[in-house]
C-alpha cells in the first residue's frame, strides 16, 4: 500500500524539498549574520562609550589626587609655620616660665619681675597652676 503511494510521487519532489530546506538554511544564516553584525556594532559602540567614561573618570581621579597632594603640602607648611610661631612667641615663653616658677613656689611679685608680665597676668597664672595642683 505505501509502495503505491511512493510510486506516484515524481522523482523531482525530493529534490525540491532538499532545495527548499537549503534555501531556508541559507536564509537563516543570512539573518543570523545580520543580527550578529548588529550586535557587534552595538557592542563596539558600548565599548567606546565605556572607554570614554573610564578615561574621564581616571582623569578626574588624577586631578583630585593632585589637588589632595597640594592640600596636604599646604597643610604641612601651615603646621610648620604655626609650630615656628608658637616656639618664637615671647609671651608663651613668659607664661611657661611663670608657670614653672609658680611650681617652684614663686609669688606674684616674683612672677612680675622675672617674667615681665602684669599683676593680673601673674595672678591668673598663679591661680591656674594652684587649681591644677588641687
Q: What keyword list fits this structure?
A:
mainly alpha; 5 helices
Task: Please outline what is shown here.
This protein is mainly alpha-helical. Helices cover 90% and strands 0% of the residues. The model has no long low-confidence stretch (mean pLDDT 86).
Structural account:
This protein is an all-alpha fold and about 130 residues long. It has helices spanning about 1-10, 10-90, 90-105, 110-115, 120-134. Helix 3 packs antiparallel against helix 4 (about 110-115).
Gyration radius, to the nearest Å? 47 Å
Oligomer: single chain
SSE string: HHHHH
Average residue pLDDT: 86
Major beta sheet summary = none
Q: What structural class do the secondary elements suggest? A: mainly alpha
Query: How many DSSP E strands?
Result: 0
Uncertain runs: none
Q: What overall form do the CA principal axes indicate? A: rod-shaped
Q: With helices defined by DSSP (H or I, 4 residues minimum), what is the helix count?
A: 5
Q: Tell me the strand percentage band.
A: under 5%
Approximately how much helix is present in the residues?
over 70%
How far the N terminus sits from the C terminus, by CA atoms, comes to 125 Å
Spell out the blueprint of helices and strands.
Layout: H1 2-8, H2 12-88, H3 90-103, H4 108-115, H5 119-133
Amino acid at each position: 500500500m505505501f509502495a503505491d503511494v511512493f510510486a506516484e510521487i515524481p522523482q523531482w519532489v525530493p529534490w525540491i524539498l532538499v532545495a527548499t530546506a537549503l534555501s531556508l538554511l541559507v536564509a537563516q544564516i543570512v539573518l543570523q549574520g545580520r543580527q550578529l553584525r548588529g550586535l557587534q556594532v552595538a557592542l563596539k559602540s558600548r565599548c567606546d562609550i565605556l572607554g570614554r567614561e573610564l578615561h574621564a573618570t581616571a582623569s578626574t581621579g588624577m586631578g583630585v589626587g593632585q589637588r589632595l597632594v597640594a592640600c596636604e603640602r599646604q597643610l604641612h607648611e601651615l603646621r610648620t609655620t604655626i609650630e615656628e610661631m608658637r616656639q618664637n612667641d615671647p609671651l608663651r615663653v613668659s607664661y611657661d616660665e611663670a608657670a614653672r616658677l609658680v611650681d617652684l613656689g614663686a609669688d606674684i611679685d616674683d612672677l612680675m619681675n622675672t617674667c615681665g608680665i602684669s599683676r593680673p597676668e601673674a595672678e591668673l597664672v598663679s591661680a591656674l597652676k594652684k587649681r591644677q595642683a588641687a
